[in-house]
Design brief:
Layout lengths: L17 H35 L3 H27 L10 H16 L5 H31 L3 H35 L1
The structure holds zinc ion and fe (iii) ion.
Fe (iii) ion (FE) binds next to α2, α4 and α5.
Length: about 180
């Protein structure tokens, strides 16, 4: 039975009005600006986490991700360019909050302790989860808007954020295993 499925909620590209299309594009560009700010500030914040970390494994994991993060900044510039927009950052209140929390954790824990590393892992994973959520939404929005090139670029970064998150989980698990072995 044929049912009418065209509602404002599920409007497809063919049925979306130019106004709806513009609103979606504006949302997409706003999200790009937010994550552009976030990535730029992560490039500055990650070295502090590396310096503060104790275990070589954790230092290495964050160092590798710092290199990827520098690439994320450049990729976002390509994404802006691919849709004919100037690369611009707008303060991400959420990321600013997460980075502030990370700094506080560094202040509250002593260098060279296990708890310091666990705090760094926790703060880093909150950051990664924010990025995963943002890139996940943006790549879908890019698809909806027909921004194929931008979608491809965002997908590449999304994969690296997920990888970084799972590597951090592995580092956390190796702590648990070491602690169990030491008993
Ligand atoms: Zn990133
Ligand atoms: Fe990241």
């Amino acid at each position: 039975m044929a049912t009418k499925t065209t509602t404002a909620k599920s409007a497809s590209a063919a049925t979306r009005t130019p106004k709806q299309e513009n609103a979606l594009k504006e949302l997409f560009v706003d999200e790009l600006k937010d994550i552009y700010w976030a990535e730029q500030h992560l490039v500055k914040a990650l070295p502090k986490m590396i310096k503060g970390a104790t275990s070589d494994e954790l230092k290495q994991t964050i160092t590798d991700h710092l290199e990827q993060t520098k690439n994320h900044v450049t990729r976002l510039e390509s994404a802006f360019e691919s849709i004919g927009e100037k690369a611009k950052s707008v303060k991400s209140e959420a990321m600013a909050g997460l980075l502030k929390e990370a700094e506080e954790l560094l202040e509250e824990t002593d260098k060279g302790t296990e708890v310091r590393d666990v705090a760094i892992i926790s703060a880093s994973q909150k950051v990664e989860h924010y990025e995963i959520a943002s890139y996940g939404t943006m790549r879908t929005l890019a698809g909806v808007l027909g921004f194929t090139e931008a979608q491809k670029i965002l997908d590449e970064t999304l994969a690296e954020e997920k990888e970084a998150d799972s590597l951090l989980t592995q580092v956390a698990e190796s702590y648990v295993n070491e602690a169990a072995a030491a008993e």
